Amino acid sequence: MSGKKIVIIDDDPEICDAMSEILSEYDYQVFTALETKTGYQLLLEQRPDLLILDIMMATMHEGLDFATKIKEREGVYGMPVLIVSARPPVEKGYGRTLEEDLDWIHADIFMEKPVEPEELIHNVELLLRK
Amino acid sequence: MKILVIDNNESIRQGLKVSLEGEGYEVLTAGAGREGLEILARELPSIILVDINMVDIDGIEVLKRAKEQNPDVQVIVTGDDNEVDLVIRALQNEATDYVGKPISEEALAGALLRSRERFWKDNKLRGYIENLEKLIKDTKEELEKRHELEHNLIQTSMDGIIANDRRGNLIIFNEGAERIYGYTREEAVANIHVTQLYPEGVAKKIKKMIYGSGYGGPGRLINYEVEVLTKKGEPVCILLSAALLYEEGREVATVGYFKDMREVKRLEQELLKRYEFEHNLIQTSMDGIIANDRQGNIIIFNEGAQSIYGYTPEEALSGMSVTRLYPEGEARRIKKLTYGSEYGGPGRLINYEVEVLSKKGEPVPILLSATLLYEEGREVAMVGCFKDMRQVKRLEKELIQRERLAAMGQATAGIAHGVKNILHAMKLGAFMVDKGFEKEKPDLLRKGWNLVGKSINRISGMTLDMLSYARSSPPARQSCSLNDIVNQVCELMVEKARERQIDLVRDLDSTLPPVSVDVEDIHSCLMNLVTNAIEAFPESSSGGLITVSSRDAGEAGVSLHVKDTGKGMTRELQEQIFKYLYSTKGARGTGLGLAITQKIIHEHGGTIEVESAPNEGSCFTIVLPK
Fold it and tell me: pLDDT at residue B155 above 80?
């Protein structure tokens, strides 16, 4: 499973660094961006196997719109998207149950901060095994 | 005196003319009857001397026509003495005299004398008669006019006028009486007895009163209220005045003036009703209504006032002074304010918030409106409308409480969000520490520990920010130069800016006057604005400019400007940025920075504004008073 590419888009450079360090320990090739514009460039350049996206970036909508755009381009069996957010999933923007929301917000897995690193690793592995 | 001589004989005419002119007459002559009549019509002579035998019209005919024309003219006929029948005819036709021909001087003089006398007599007599006739006519006319006037006066009087003779038969019954009673004049006069106009026994009683002296003296009755009976038998209230009429010392009639009181009574009732309505309005008003006279005595105290104060109206209206309704000195202050113009104009006080004192001595919040009442230009009372604000104040308090709770909820959510982000980083850091130990990778361990440390710093920074936002103490002001603060901040931040390839430059006004501010506060405001300016540039950008400037803004005070050439903001975003816990920085921002900055500037009596456009950069301007 080594050598798989992951792109992380998160506006917090500390988080980007830490995630990068941790995922590198599991032999993933990690690329980070602090905003969606440069993040999109990375996606085009690197053709990653997974996108980890923080949807509380500049504004919530920016993250959600970005996720929608990516999933539309990739299609259902395309690159998986893992969303990490500080907002609980029941709040405005992605209400209802998690399963329903996964379609709606175009994410394969949704995780609420603070995320247990072990779980994150587990979910990353899950998505990349497909 | 004019005299006309008519004769066919020229010499007789001339002879008479000469002799009569000698007597002092003005003499006109005519040679024929027709000519004589023409002159007669034109010249109006007083005396005519005419010959009875003339060729065209004879003397008798001239005499007749002359008398027809002017009965005053005196005609002397001349002719043959022997023709007696002619003499008689002449005298029958009102000739003044007959003088035989040839005319003797004595006979003519006598005839003329008689003519003159008769002329004057006739003239005067007719004048007298005419004068007398005119006098009689005028008097008659005036009498008729006066009678008509009196008749009309009686007939058209708004009041009923009824007169009866000594036996009680009606002799006058005017239109006013018709209106009151419903009888027509024809029905009433001579047909109705005066007693029929009243309920039984009343007419007699009235008669007695007229003769007595209790109501306006004997022979008179003045303004006596009585009920009369109409044709339909309905009672009508009347104000009656009556008098006895005498003719040559003998009582001949009684005349009464009947004033219909129905309208007056109706108005009286209406007035009473309206008074009651207004009284009720005042009494049942939800607001307290209190009025006091010029001496300060309470004169109106309604139920609303009772519920505010706890005094009963009886207590308040028994000489209680209005000053007792307020804490000491307040009543006088209100009076002053009412006379003044700052609350709704002189003589008025509108929506003035005041605390009054209840009977128990408890303060009650009131919204007071008052006005001075005038009567004929003189101030007579002051009336106040007291709105009980206890309920409103309670609701206000509840609302504030609720708003506070809502704000707390919002704050908690914001804090939770910030804490979650930091916690997330901390967990990642701790995981790295674990892995570092496990795999004996000191580098990973160090990085992880570093992240934990940073997260701790971030959480304490956030706590301090929140504390400073919640701070309620006033700024510790001291006189200082804003330029000094700008310099300190810029020196601290210039390095950080350079790392991002941003030039941080200063443009300071060296003549800036010192201001009295809390140095630490303004320092942190400026730090916040400069930090924001640096973060306004996209990560990927290379190069940028931040200018911090100071200016003397004249009367407005002193201004500071932080201008960047970064990504700028939309209008919607500009409206959000000063909100508590609003952030565009995700995990890096607490959403407190600008909220705190704004709070500090406001505490200093200053203003903070932003001008910005997307992709053009932003400029924050702080103005502080001198």
Answer: no
- Do B564 and B484 belong to one domain? yes
pLDDT in tens, B278-333: 888 887 778 899 999 988 899 999 988 999 999 999 999 998 999 999 998 888 88
Name the CA radius of gyration of chain A, rounded.
13
Both B458 and B565 in one domain: the answer is no
In this structure, is residue B496 part of a structural domain?
yes
Range of the domain at B50: 2-127
Q: Evaluate whether ipTM surpasses 0.85.
A: no
> Is residue B137 domain-resident?
no
Q: Are residues B583 and B516 in the same domain?
A: yes
Q: Does B620 lie in the same domain as B500?
A: yes
Answer for the pair B549, B563: CB distance below 8 angstroms, yes or no.
yes
Among A8, A10, A11, A14, the strongest candidate for a mutation testing the B interface, having the largest count of B CBs within 10 A, is A14
Structure tokens at B283: 């009494």
pLDDT digits 0-9 by tens, B355-409:
999 999 999 999 999 998 888 888 888 999 999 998 888 888 888 888 777 777 7
Asked if the structure places residue B403 within a domain, the reply is yes
User: What are the pLDDT digits (tens) for B192-227?
Assistant: 899 999 999 898 888 888 888 877 778 888 888 899
Residue with tokens 């007939």: B155
**Beta-carbon contacts of residue A109 (< 8 Å; ≥ 6 apart):** A80, A82, A83, A102, A123, A126, A127
3-state helix/strand/coil string of chain A:
CCCCEEEEECCCHHHHHHHHHHHHHCCCEEEEECCHHHHHHHHHHHCCCEEEEECCCCCHHHHHHHHHHHHHHHCCCCCCEEEEECCCCCCCCCCCCHHHHHHHCCCCEEEECCCCHHHHHHHHHHHHHC
Q: In B347-389, which ranges are continuous DSSP H helix? A: none
pLDDT of the residue at B67: 87
**Pairing relation of β-strands B235-247 and B250-260?**
antiparallel
Q: What CATH number is attached to the domain comprising B582?
A: 3.30.565.10
**What's the rounded Cα separation, in Å, for the pair B192 and B579?**
98
Q: How far is CA B501 from CA B335, B495, B537, B540, B542, in A?
A: 70, 10, 10, 11, 6
What span, in angstroms and rounded, lies between the C-alpha atoms of A33 and B311? Answer: 77
Q: How confident is the model at residue B467 (pLDDT cuts 50, 70, 90)?
A: confident
**B514 neighbors B558 (Cβ within 8 angstroms):** no
Which residue from A17, A112, A117 is facing B427, i.e. has the nearest CB? A117
Whether residues B586 and A116 touch (CB distance < 8 A) is answered with: no
Q: Are strands B170-173 and B160-165 parallel, antiparallel or unpaired?
A: antiparallel
Q: Per the CB < 8 Å rule, is A18 touching B425?
A: yes
Using a CB-CB cut-off of 8 Å, the residues of chain A touching B576 are none
Domains recognised in chain A with CATH numbers: 5-129 (3.40.50.2300)
Q: Which of B337, B368, B386 is the last residue of a domain?
A: B386
Same domain, B619 and B487: yes
**Structure token digits, residue B325:** 């309704």
Residues B465 and B478 in one domain: no
**Into how many domains does chain B fold?**
5
> B43 and B120 in one domain?
yes
Q: Is residue B277 part of a domain?
A: no
Are the Cβ atoms of B425 and A14 closer than 8 angstroms? yes
Q: Tokens at residue B103, please?
A: 């005319």
- Count the neighbouring beta carbons within 10 Å of the beta carbon of residue B212: 14
Among partner residues B420, B428, B540, which is closest to A18 by beta-carbon distance?
Answer: B428
CATH number for the domain spanning B351: value is 3.30.450.20
Q: Are residues B560 and B576 in the same domain?
A: yes
Q: Give A62 to chain B, closest Cα distance, Å.
A: 11
Distance, CA of B302 to chain centre: 29
Last residue of a domain, one of B360, B386, B412: B386
Nearest in space to B205 (alpha carbons), one of B216, B191, B195: B195
The span from the CA of B397 to the CA of B156, in Å, is 74
